[in-house]
Amino acid sequence: MSDSAIRPEDLVLLLGARPRRGVRAWLYRGIAKAVRDGRLPPGLRLPSSRAVAAALGVARGPVSEALELLAAEGYVITRDRSGSRVAPRAESVRAERPEVALRPPPSPGTPDPALFPWASWLRSMRIGSARLRPDDLGYGDPRGLPALRERVAELLRLTRGAVVAPDQVVIISGVAQGLTLLATVLRRRGAGPIGLEDPGSPGARDSLRSLGADVVPVPADGDGLDIDRRVGEPGAVLVTPAHQYPLGVPLSPDRRRRLLDWAAAVDRLVIEDDYDADLRYDGLPIGVLQAMAPDRVALLGSVSKVLAPGMRLGWLVPPPHLYDELVAAKRNADLGTSVFDQAALAEFIGSGEYQRQVRRLRQVYGERRAALVGGLRERFDVSPAGFSAGLHVLVRLPDHDAEQRALAYLAERNVAAHALSDCFFADGDPGLVLGTARIPAPDLIPALPD
């Protein structure tokens, strides 16, 4: 160990001006920081507490206490006769690793944050929090607050035609968690692979694969998912019947019946992702598939499109035979969703603010979509695929080179877009899936080839 030492006056100079109060804390923080950043190297002998106290013009007690705390935390080593030295420091070894993007790229389905109803939401937070009881602040019912489950059940019955009671609802931290819980329970039951729409959501496909789930394609076209063209025999199928992603079409009545007939005949589960059905601009939203077969369909939904994805609040309405297992899986996953957020959402829905927000968004997003579609028709004499709903449109392109050029142009301008080809399990058709919530038509039109 080095025999070098630092004089009391040099240590005081290194630490800077002494405060009038809090000498012990100041001395502790200053020496600890100097050790961490290398200004006091390992093995350096420190002056005695008596010498430091004399140099600072303070009592010896606070200095001794600071050195004892530094020794307890491993910054210095104190021996009876040799005094204190800076402790040896383990070399920091930082493994080389690739850069990881912590924030995902812009998604075509992301709402405009400028439309978030801050005033009414903050009011709902105040009122909802005031209604919480002391017992609500502990580890509560993993199904969620009773008040929110009542509000969600009522909302789903009135606006989506669902067959649901409050004791059938599980409050979840977004649809992604709902998929995780369902995949976990299905895997434990040995249900087999999960069928996904092809084309479909790349996010859902990647999420399920990351959980170790076996996923298989089920072709989708202008009438939605076609269960008769499935690959193999999946144990469950994930479907977006109200507004297929990315094709933008509803599941046709005939396809709806055939999907439910298949599920009943072979005792399989249909997972309904009702992700943006509230946002239809040319008529009433299409009702949920769950209403036709509540014993075969697990209904998923969230506030991500109407409010904000960062809120991480949603709901799961499973068939009765899976309910207890899913509640147990939710408890094991996170012990329940934040009661303050749940209380706020219960008040927000109960006061009518949720439906007011839906009406506002239908008007604003409907106008923005119409402007974008009009610009595409004027420039290219084409209409995007799908019907007037949701937060995305699909524009088909002549080839994959055009797709890549358009994506590069839009990425430079931070415009949310997906390649249609990425939505397929294998090689797929070229095109762009464009977000309509924030995209201005003048930024989009030049990106598309003539």
Automatic annotation (TrEMBL):
Domain HTH gntR-type, residue spans: 21-89
UniProt-listed InterPro entries: Aminotransferase_I/II_large (IPR004839), HTH_trans_reg/aminotransferase (IPR051446), PyrdxlP-dep_Trfase (IPR015424), PyrdxlP-dep_Trfase_major (IPR015421), Tscrpt_reg_HTH_GntR (IPR000524), WH-like_DNA-bd_sf (IPR036388), WH_DNA-bd_sf (IPR036390)
Keywords on record: Aminotransferase, DNA-binding, Pyridoxal phosphate, Transcription, Transcription regulation, Transferase
SUPFAM superfamilies (UniProt xref): PLP-dependent transferases, Winged helix' DNA-binding domain
GO molecular function, one term: DNA-binding transcription factor activity
SMART domains linked: HTH_GNTR
Cited Pfam families: Aminotran_1_2, GntR
Biased composition (Basic and acidic residues): 91-100
Highest taxon in the source lineage: Bacteria
Region Disordered: start-end pairs: 87-110
Family to which the UniProt record says this protein belongs: In the C-terminal section; belongs to the class-I pyridoxal-phosphate-dependent aminotransferase family.
Protein name, per record: GntR family transcriptional regulator/MocR family aminotransferase
Lineage of the species this protein comes from: Bacteria, Bacillati, Actinomycetota, Actinomycetes, Propionibacteriales
